């Protein structure tokens, strides 16, 4: 298990063949990163977070050695226009799952070090100072 101190996470890679990792209370299921458009250094990541504890957990940061920054984003409808907005954290209610998917909640990835590899280490940190390292897969829609 890896812990975060003051929202700064170390990097320890825990890989499981089924692409599912566990911290003390949060499971990260099937994370994937959309391959960036050629010539662009940004993309998005998607997954399902499952909270197996009896208390809400709040995702406060995500980091990766292959991205300069990662933000948690949501989609909003404003005056008939769909807009993405950064949110400071993402609550995963006790005993429930939250899915990050295209057109909804997602992680925005900036400053990508391309070309990306097929397996991408990421570290997810929560407000209880718990972090989980995981490997996302690279997904090419083409």
Automatic annotation (TrEMBL):
Keyword hit for Methyltransferase: no
Entry protein name? Copper(I)-binding protein
Which residue ranges run through the membrane?
Answer: none
Q: Which domain of life is it from?
A: Bacteria
Keywords linked to the UniProt accession: Signal
The residues the entry assigns to the signal sequence are 1-23
Q: Which Pfam families match?
A: PCuAC
Q: Does the keyword Signal apply?
A: yes
Q: What is the lineage of its organism?
A: Bacteria, Pseudomonadati, Pseudomonadota, Gammaproteobacteria, Oceanospirillales
């Amino acid at each position: 298990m890896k812990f975060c101190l003051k929202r700064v996470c170390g990097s320890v890679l825990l890989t499981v063949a089924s692409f599912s990792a566990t911290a003390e209370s949060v499971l990260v299921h099937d994370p994937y990163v959309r391959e960036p458009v050629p010539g662009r250094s940004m993309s998005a990541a998607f997954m399902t977070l499952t909270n197996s504890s009896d208390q809400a957990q709040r995702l406060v940061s995500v980091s990766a050695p292959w991205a300069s920054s990662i933000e948690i984003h949501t989609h909003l409808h404003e005056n008939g226009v769909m807009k993405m907005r950064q949110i400071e954290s993402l609550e995963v209610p006790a005993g429930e799952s939250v899915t990050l998917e295209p057109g909804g909640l997602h992680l925005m990835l900036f400053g990508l070090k391309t070309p990306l590899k097929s397996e991408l280490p990421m570290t997810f940190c929560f407000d209880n100072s718990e972090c989980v390292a995981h490997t996302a897969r690279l997904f090419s829609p083409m």
